[in-house]
Design goal:
It is globular and about 55 Å long. The longest helix has 22 residues. The protein is about 50% helix and about 10% strand. The chain contains 14 helices and seven strands. Strand 6 and strand 7 form a beta hairpin.
């Protein structure tokens, strides 16, 4: 269980009900919001992650409070957020004053406490082995999504002062995602073409694993009902398609599966709050495709 019993945040103990620290554009946070929506919980109006006004401290039953950790403003690198999540990543979740971290663990926790169809198969369920494999593979490929996203976007670099601060803050945690090393390389332009291609190839191989299963006609990744595995992989497709990854051309069965996910009411809750930014992503991707550059052509080249 991901509960963090030792932290230095003054905010966490004040919070009652369910509070999600997140950003709408972050895939790991999207998968948690997808589960919250599937469980029927309503999203309350956004507040800043460190808001301690009386109205922000309590999430009514059947709803959750949205606490925005802006990646654009680099809120995740502040002292206040590092006291909540010392690894400087989102999301984090607080339930009745208890802190939980790591998106997959958060989802499993929510699935265990909230009503509705279970999204985590039990270990005696015939689907469990496949579910576990796809979940672990999805977690592993988060590293590839990060590299591809940052290489494609070209934004988010840290200046020397910010890099020093990030490395100092990460020393307090475990830096399980090797963020210090990642930002050091990204800031210095060291995400090489070879590394980029390697991660694109890994993503394609991951989608091939999904296609092997979907080819038998199942509606979801592990069978006839939705699981966390669907949430993990669907969020990857959202981000990649915003960058013009040719899912339909390279992995048609995956594209059909994703269309079924996108038809669910819960999907709309994932993308509705950053429509303008999604348009910016798609315009950039469209222009690159027209010019023969960008992720579309890179993915086709690596797959050929």
């Amino acid at each position: 269980m991901p509960k963090i019993s030792e932290h230095s945040s003054d905010i966490v103990p004040l919070l009652q009900g369910i509070h999600l620290f997140h950003d709408d554009i972050a895939p790991c946070a999207q998968r948690v919001r997808f589960v919250l929506a599937e469980k029927g919980l309503a999203r309350n109006p956004d507040t800043k992650f460190d808001d301690v006004s009386a109205a922000s401290l309590v999430a009514a039953e059947g709803s959750w409070n949205s606490r925005i950790v802006s990646l654009i403003r680099k809120d995740q690198f502040t002292e206040a957020y590092s006291a909540i999540q010392p690894n400087l990543v989102i999301p984090a979740l607080v339930h009745n004053g208890e802190l939980y971290t790591e998106s997959i663990d958060i989802i499993e926790y929510l699935d265990s406490i909230l009503a509705g169809e279970r999204l985590v198969p039990s270990q005696d369920d015939p689907r469990y082995e496949d579910f576990h494999y796809l979940t672990e593979l999805g977690k592993k490929l988060h590293w590839s999504i990060r590299h591809v996203t940052y290489r494609w976007g070209g934004v988010g670099k840290l200046n020397a002062k910010e890099q020093d601060k990030v490395e100092s803050l990460l020393k307090r945690g475990r830096d399980e995602e090797n963020l210090a090393e990642f930002y050091r390389d990204f800031n210095q332009g060291k995400i090489s073409q070879e590394t980029y291609d390697e991660h694109l190839r890994a993503i394609g191989q991951g989608f091939d694993e999904l296609a092997k299963r979907l080819n038998d006609g199942r509606p979801f990744l592990t069978g006839h009902s939705l699981t966390i595995a669907d949430a993990i992989w669907a969020m990857k497709v959202i981000r990649l398609e915003e960058m013009a990854y040719p899912t339909n051309e390279l992995h048609p069965e995956v594209s059909k599966w994703f269309a079924r996910i996108a038809a669910r009411p819960s999907y709309e809750t994932l993308v509705s709050n950053y429509r303008v930014l999604r348009r910016v992503f798609k315009v950039k991707s469209w222009l690159e495709k027209k010019l023969g550059t960008g992720l579309y052509w890179a993915a086709k080249r690596v797959a050929s």
